[in-house]
UniProtKB/TrEMBL annotation:
This is Calcium-activated chloride channel regulator 4-like. Residues 762-784 are annotated as: Disordered. Residues 1-19 form the signal peptide. The chain crosses the membrane at residues 899-924. Keywords: Membrane, Signal, Transmembrane, Transmembrane helix. It comes from Saccoglossus kowalevskii (Acorn worm). The keyword Signal applies. SUPFAM superfamilies: vWA-like. Pfam families: CLCA, VWA. Residues 314-488 form the VWFA domain. CDD domains: vWFA. The keyword Membrane applies.
Length: 954
């Protein structure tokens, strides 16, 4: 088998974040940084002016912050095609909003106007994009008041995006303060040289935590506010970039500036995710700071800017018509999928061309703009009609380049969608064309039909920034139609006119039997709703379809204009007029034939409101080419509505494997375990490990389809407390909202495919090369002074990364932070005998919450306990050491009295008042009686003078 010669970097595990606009570093300067403005933003030249000002400032700050290693050399600003031409210096080529490094769009519900970076990969891996809002850019007074110098904010976000570091400020309520090794309470900050005050934002900003040696954590609501004036700390950009004194990132070098020294004890995401490395330590592992990029001090760091205007997609279908395409109805299926693609999936105004190839190639259509239904029909009529010949993939690619260049200044940014089943056997080969494709910045998506397709397809896509797909030809695979759909939806998800795929599956219907199913049309979709039913090419009779709307209306064969049957492509299309009703739609598919039929169903719709985002599902894989042993790949999916993340969804990835192995279902979770670095952020992740040692004809490929639904009523959206770049005032952070149920919905998306290099070793049944994942959310929420205990909790990881159940936990503690982190094996091991609650030898399944209560030998002020844990599997593979949790056992003063204490106090007060009243009344009564006695005495004395018979004795 011939192996394609590929460039070295192809063999790296490339994250899907790298599929965005590539930024290069040359002579210390970043080139081709793309800032894109969304079409929903109204035209305003001031926005462009401010972007230029902000990035000019950022370039100077970045140069200093990276010790003269980097700056922004040139920045491209992409404006919407709806804006005026007079603002544009050139037409866009490769630039698209969905690929931009920095986007300018409406606010994210969770962040408001806070700048932030979408970051879902592990420490050291790049982020996806930086999100800025129009107001933050244009309203200089507003942004400066809350975030300080806008240029410094960009440096903060660039560190996330480029080098994969994390924030050094506290994110959770319990992270704002921590115990140092002397048991003193300190505010979370980096560096420790940052001075400031601790104030209670819940109590009129009264001062709190005035005695750090008290050993008692401040009350809820206490926050640390750095001093804006006279602060001497020089770091860190990832903590409080708004401080004038901050000019660099925290480092871990004892010989460098101590006012920028990394604070390993601080409870922040950088420490938790990067194993307590400083930001500089992570940065230095990036190629930006490797050999060949020495610091440059005396250079001009003012960037140049180019304003370009967005253009429509340019796509060329490159279709294989070689003789082998007659096998298993491959040619007919390709034409079937191409017809749906041209007729319905491709957005209006897209430019589309067609090339067929076998022994050589023929251009069937140069680029034509899809402006109306007639244009689409004309282009469908130009699809290939027959097969024959050998396989010259390079010929098809060369003709595709010619189509993109015909009548256009540059082919850059054009997309070639190559569909083939063959192992190329006629020159030019892929390797003869790939350099030209890369040089001309042409993207190539590839769809491998069957196991027989050339092994170089995945590598071709990866090198050109495209996506590789695979159709296995199994009776359950929807990979063909899913690939055609995903080439559009993955590129235009920011447009409300892009279709949403609600259902996609294939099933066998027995002779004379009926399949009854349903689909939910939720409130976010309803326009251009279309049911596609594809029946078997081996059948002579079309299936019968009946669709029932929520109000009981019926659509069936004979409804002119709604129900269309195309015998040539074995397709029934049912288009719903106007806005489809929200609710449950039922449909029946009857097979009238005397033999079983394989039927495929695909249902699509678009946003209810052209100005409102629909609920979408998007998925991708961490790498399209697996080259390392043992093999592993992360699968990611996001469920979102615009920038609003959908939580609690039931997300399942179905992975097709090489024949004869069955597909496997993998739950993708949003719980912060394994591949998922942040829980409850709307990104669902999981590791796929079930590789098989198959005898593949050309290459061992795996295809991914992801489905998402409402999870039996658990799905919701809510505003979470997120900050982006830390503001000077917490008032600007959106308030966390209550969950809002989403209701019934269903979504389907292709995750593309991945291919395993032939040199990769597939583990056998007797091998266990995968350790448990690292636990990254260990925390200690409380302690009990009387019981002398500390509570610990974390999320369980698996036996193999995030899959299965670990064998036991190795939990340890120390009163030295350095010992638990740097010399874990020397720390004191906790056994089940030390536990009040929990069992270390019976871990829960991956994703479960673990709770333990540990008895410890010492309590009182001055002793801080540091804890870390690692999971161990049956083969004694040890996971990496977790983040460090800390706590102390001191008496915690209560903020109030118990109910019975209050009752006794009130009772005592009542009794005291009653006694006082009783004494007062008695005293008054005594005085009155005494006065009466005196009056009586006076009367008696007078009478004695008149009557001597009375004698008064004194």
């Amino acid at each position: 088998m011939r192996v394609l010669l590929v460039h070295f970097f192809t063999f790296l595990l490339v994250s899907f974040a790298d599929c965005r606009n590539p930024v290069s570093l040359e002579d210390n300067g970043y080139r081709d940084v793309l800032v894109a403005i969304h079409e929903s933003i109204e035209e305003d030249p001031l926005l462009i002016t401010r972007i230029k000002e902000i990035f000019t400032s950022a370039s100077s700050h970045l140069h200093l912050a990276t010790e003269y290693h980097t700056y922004f050399n040139n920045v491209t600003i992409l404006i919407p095609k709806t804006w005026s031409d007079n603002l544009t210096e050139a037409a866009a080529t490769t630039e698209r909003f969905d690929l931009a490094n920095v986007i300018v769009d409406q606010p994210n519900t969770n962040y408001g106007h806070n700048p932030y970076t979408k970051q879902i990969l592990k420490c050291g891996d790049p982020g996806q994009y930086i999100h800025l809002t129009e107001r933050w850019i244009k309203d200089k007074q507003f942004s400066w008041y809350y975030w300080g110098d806008s240029g410094k904010v960009i440096v903060h976000e660039w560190a996330h995006l480029r080098w994969g570091v994390y924030d050094e400020y506290p994110e959770e309520e319990y992270d704002h303060f921590y115990y140092d090794e002397n048991g003193n309470v300190q505010p979370t900050r980096c560096s420790e040289a940052v001075t400031g005050k601790s104030l209670n934002i819940s109590d009129n900003y009264k001062e709190c935590n005035t005695d750090p040696s008290s050993g008692v954590m401040p009350s809820t609501g206490c926050r640390f506010f750095p001093d804006l004036d006279n602060n001497e700390a020089t770091a860190s950009y990832m903590y409080a970039n708004y401080l004038d004194s901050v000019v660099t990132f925290c480092h871990g070098n004892d010989e460098k500036d101590q006012k920028a020294k990394h604070n390993r004890l601080a409870r922040n995401k950088q420490n938790k995710q990067c194993c307590y490395q400083s930001v500089w330590e992570v940065m230095l592992q990036h190629s930006d700071f490797g050999e060949g990029n020495e610091p440059a001090v005396d250079i001009n760091v003012t960037p140049s800017f180019l304003v370009v205007q967005e253009i429509e997609l340019r796509i060329v279908l490159i279709l294989d018509i070689s003789g082998s395409m007659n096998t298993n109805d491959r040619f007919d299926l390709m034409i079937q999928a191409s017809t749906k693609y041209i007729g319905y999936t491709v957005p209006s105004d897209t430019w589309l061309g067609i090339v067929e190839f076998s022994t050589d190639a023929t251009i069937l259509s140069y680029l034509v703009q899809l402006s109306d239904t007639d244009t689409r029909k004309q282009l469908i009529d130009k699809l290939p009609t027959g097969t024959g010949g050998s396989t010259c993939i390079g010929c098809g690619l060369n003709s595709g380049i010619e189509v993109l260049e015909h009548g256009w200044e540059s082919p850059s940014g054009g997309i070639l969608f190559l569909i083939t089943d063959g192992d190329e056997n006629v020159r030019p080969y892929i390797e003869d064309v790939i350099d030209e494709l890369v040089e001309k910045e042409i993207v190539v998506d590839t769809l491998a039909l069957s196991d027989e397709a050339d092994p170089g397809l995945a590598e071709l896509s990866e090198e050109t920034g495209g996506t590789a797909y695979w159709y296995s030809e199994s009776d359950s695979s929807t990979g063909l139609h899913d690939a055609f759909t995903d080439t559009i939806t993955s590129r235009t998800s920011s447009s409300t006119s892009t279709p949403v795929q609600l259902s996609s599956y294939k099933t066998t219907i027995a002779a004379a039997d009926t399949l009854s199913e349903y689909v939910y049309i939720d409130s976010t979709i309803g326009r251009h709703t279309v049911f596609f039913i594809f029946w078997d090419f081996s059948s002579t009779e079309a299936v019968h379809v009946v669709i029932k709307s929520p109000d009981g209306s019926i659509i069936e064969d004979g409804d002119t204009g709604k129900y269309l049957e195309d015998y040539n492509t074995r397709t029934i299309t049912v288009a719903i007029e106007g806005l489809a009703q929200s609710g449950q739609w039922f449909y029946n598919i009857t097979n009238p034939d005397s033999v079983d039929q394989v039927v495929e169903v695909s249902i699509e719709s678009t946003s209810t409101d052209p100005d409102a985002d629909p609920l979408r599902l998007q998925s991708t894989v961490g790498s399209e080419l697996i080259t390392e042993s043992p093999p592993q790949v992360a699968i990611y999916a996001t469920v979102h509505r615009g920038y609003e993340q959908i939580l609690g969804a039931n997300v399942i990835a179905t992975i097709e494997r090489p024949s004869p192995y069955d597909p496997i279902d993998l739950s993708l979770l949003d719980n912060g375990v394994g591949a998922d670095i942040t829980g409850d952020d709307g990104t669902y992740s999981g590791y796929f490990l079930d590789f098989v040692d198959a005898h593949c004809e050309q290459a061992c490929r795996y295809a991914v389809q992801v489905t998402a639904d409402d999870g039996h009523g658990t799905t919701n959206t809510r505003t979470l407390i997120s900050t982006g770049a830390m503001p000077t005032n917490y008032d600007v952070i959106p308030t966390e909202g209550d969950p809002v149920p989403i209701g019934d919905f269903g979504r389907v998306a292709s995750g593309g495919s991945f291919q395993v290099d032939e040199n990769v070793h597939i583990p056998g049944e007797d091998e266990d090369p995968y350790p448990p994942s690292r636990i990254s959310d260990l925390e200690s929420p409380s302690s009990n002074y009387d019981e002398q205990t500390i509570t610990l909790r974390w999320t369980a990881v698996g036996d193999d990364l995030d899959q299965g159940t670990a064998e036991y936990y190795d939990l340890r503690y120390s009163t030295s932070f350095s010992e638990i982190l740097d010399h874990f094996d020397n720390a004191t091991q906790i056994t089940n005998d030390d536990l009040v609650v929990g069992n270390l030898t019976s871990p829960l399944p991956s994703g479960s919450e673990e709770n333990f209560i540990v008895w410890l030998p010492t309590k009182g002020t001055g002793t801080t306990y540091y804890f870390a844990v690692r999971a161990v599997d049956k083969a004694d593979n040890e996971g990496d050491i977790s983040n460090v949790a800390q706590n102390t056992i001191v008496p915690i003063p209560t903020s109030g009295l118990e109910w019975w204490e209050i009752f006794l106090i009130i009772l005592c007060c009542v009794l005291a008042i009653a006694i006082i009243v009783w004494v007062t009344v008695c005293a008054m009564h005594y005085c009155q009686m005494k006065n009466k006695t005196k009056d009586s005495s006076k009367t008696a004395n007078t009478e004695d003078l008149d009557n001597p018979s009375y004698v008064v004795v004194y």
